[in-house]
Design brief:
Family: Belongs to the MipA/OmpV family.
Signal peptide: 1-23
Strand order of the largest sheet: 1-2-3-4-5-6-7-8-9-10-11-12
Order of helices and strands: HHHEEEEEEEEEHEEHE
Keywords: Cell outer membrane, Membrane, Signal
Oligomer: single chain
Number of helices: 5
Pfam family, one: MipA
Structural class: alpha+beta
Main location: membrane
CATH architecture: Beta Barrel
CATH topology: Porin
């Protein structure tokens, strides 16, 4: 029961990491593969949905900031609350309902919250840009067991017209363990529509100035590498760490408001399950 609950804290820290929407740090596939690594299986038809656990805890995150003139690193601390069962996850980081599965794969309905990519007050080069709205997203996720790990794919679309676009991610993840440590290693590539890239790094003609040129980007492919580790300290308490690297393509770095071509993030979660 406890290990099944621990993974939700990982998804909670992933939610914090994903608050940097310029390179959505955790994909739905990454979240799900970590959950599957520790969630118990059950033969009871109701327990996959209703036999989950509640978790409370705290998370911390540090991430590099690629925006020109902004602080080099962002520090975040957040409380967390979530419910997680074998086939249903509901939390502040989103919703994942596994509507179909067999021994080879699964299909899920997804709900996601994408935070604003930046605050115009964070840098003089961002000041005067249009405020971005938080995006509510929905979509589908799928998995296919292959070799030692799983191929994960997801599709998300904007519901409230915050950016009016789409995102597709495909990744491969290998769970493993050593002693009491549970590891998850993987990576993949995220395709973002031109509307989503514009939401993150675009500059309108009316916002252009001598040190900030007009920029209307194309769609982009963003490669990523991901790692996480889970350590159960007791039956009810665990420590979880995550790290990832996002490699920003030309569609990002050609924008005058971006100065780095990568984003590195690391996080730590303390979680109690009941």
């Amino acid at each position: 029961m406890v290990l099944g609950g621990l993974v939700i804290s990982t998804t909670a820290i992933i939610m914090a990491l994903s608050s940097d929407a310029y390179a959505q740090s955790a994909t739905p596939g990454q979240k799900e593969i970590i959950r599957e690594q520790v969630n118990p299986q059950t033969e009871d038809a109701l327990k996959p949905w209703l036999g989950g656990d509640w978790q409370i805890g705290v998370l911390g995150r540090v991430s590099s900031n690629p925006y020109r003139g902004a602080d080099n690193t962002d520090l975040t601390g957040l409380p967390m609350l979530a419910y997680d069962a074998e086939r249903l996850h509901v939390g502040i980081d989103g919703i994942n309902a596994k509507v179909w599965e067999n021994k080879f794969g699964s299909v899920s309905l997804l709900g996601n919250l994408r935070m604003e990519p930046f605050d115009p007050d964070d840098s003089p080069y961002l000041k005067g840009l249009e405020d971005r709205d938080m995006a509510f997203e929905a979509g589908l996720g799928g998995s296919l067991r292959l070799w030692r790990g799983e191929v994960k794919a997801s599709y998300l679309t904007d519901l409230n017209d915050a950016y009016g676009g789409h995102e597709i991610d495909v990744g491969y993840y290998i769970p493993t363990n050593w002693d009491r440590f549970n590891f998850n290693i993987g990576g993949g590539v995220t395709w973002q529509s031109e509307e989503l890239v514009d939401y993150n790094v675009g500059v309108k003609r009316s916002e252009a100035r001598s040190d900030r040129g007009f920029y209307a980007p194309d769609a982009a492919f963003v490669p990523h590498l991901d790692f996480s580790v889970i350590y159960p300290v007791t039956e009810s308490f665990a420590v979880i760490g995550t790290s990832d690297v996002r490699f920003l393509p030309d569609e990002y770095t050609d924008s005058s408001i971006i100065e780095d071509d990568y984003v590195i993030s690391a996080g730590l979660v303390l979680v109690y399950t009941f």
